[in-house]
Amino acid sequence: MRSALLTYLAVGIGAGLGGICRYALTSLFVARFGPGLPLGTFFINMTGSFFIGLISELAQTRVVGIDPIVRLAMTAGFLGGYTTFSSFAFETETLAGEREWGTSLAYAVGSVTLGVAACYAGMVIARLAVRPA
């Protein structure tokens, strides 16, 4: 029971911290670039995709000792709170609603394609980092 409670607590704390980071970064991007193109959400989802690939690969190789609770706190918790599919969906629809068809399509396709590529890049970097010399 104690282990399950600790796991839920770790994920909850991680999610809260991830959400705070997402909000702070989004605010910085809006202040810098304006509210038009959702560059903040794009940046957050790309970096989150990269880090989930990196962390998951490091955890699976077991070369770097990542405790299962720490891994859950970082992936399901922090990165789950940090990345935001719902904001991505809303912003894509908003751009389409403003008749920014090309921008909406490019944002949607680019986010998915580059998000998967970023995840893969994180996995490759993790593999290279733990490869024996």
Structure write-up:
It is built from five helices and no strands. The chain is mainly α. The chain has one domain. Helix 2 (39-61) runs parallel beside helix 5 (101-130). The longest helix is centred in the first third of the chain and has 32 residues, at 2-33. The radius of gyration is 17 Å and the shape is globular. The termini are far apart. The mean pLDDT is 91.
Keywords:
mainly alpha; 5 helices; about 130 residues
Question: In terms of topology, how is this protein built?
Answer:
Layout: H1 2-33, H2 39-61, H3 68-82, H4 85-97, H5 101-130
Helix pairs in contact: 1-2, 1-3, 2-3, 2-5, 4-5
Brief description of this entry?
The chain has 133 residues and is an all-alpha fold.
Mean pLDDT: 91
Tell me the structural class: mainly alpha
* Number of contiguous helices: 5
Q: Tell me the distance between the termini.
A: 42 Å
The major sheet is characterized as:
none
